[in-house]
Amino acid sequence: MPGLIDCHVHLIYGGEGDPKSKVGGAKPGDLVMRALDRAQESLRSGVTSLRDLGGKDFLEFAVRDACKSGRQLGPPILAAGQMICMTGGHGNAFGRVADGPQEVIKAVREQVMQDQM
């Protein structure tokens, strides 16, 4: 059987009922290691590609880059960066709030710039 692709993950989250309490106060290094652990666990489970749809402070990019370069064992990761949401919307606690078309365009441009750093 070919590998599996998980098209909707959030590597820094673990399915907690209250992710804000688990992730909100965590140190960046701890979140990066948490994301790497989840990526490697996915690979051991037969998932050979992941699509991360929103993390915190672009920390999942470090995991993606480490797996891609071979420094760490892990699947290829397509990472979206921060969630972009409206005021009060889903992901509001950790996402980039953008209300209206101009704000969304600006938020997307910020995402692209972070990915190029």
Keywords:
alpha/beta, Translation Initiation Factor IF3, 2 domains, two-stranded parallel sheet, 4 helices, 41% helix
Describe the structure.
With 117 residues, this protein is an alpha/beta fold. The chain has two domains: 1-81, Amidohydrolase (Translation Initiation Factor IF3), CATH 3.30.110.90; 83-117, no CATH class. The protein is built from four helices and five strands. It has helices spanning 19-23, 28-44, 60-69, 101-116; strands at 4-9, 47-52, 77-79, 84-85, 96-97. The protein has a three-stranded parallel β-sheet. The longest helix is centred in the first third of the chain and has 17 residues, at 28-44. The mean pLDDT is 92.
Distance between the termini: 37 Å
**Average pLDDT taken over every residue:** 92
Sheet-strand content, in percent, reads 15-25%
What's the name of the CATH homologous superfamily of the largest domain? Amidohydrolase
Strand segment count? 5
Level-2 CATH architecture of the largest domain: 2-Layer Sandwich
The portion of residues assigned to helices is 40-55%
Top-tier CATH class of the largest domain: Alpha Beta
Provide the domain count. 2
Q: What's the total helix number?
A: 4
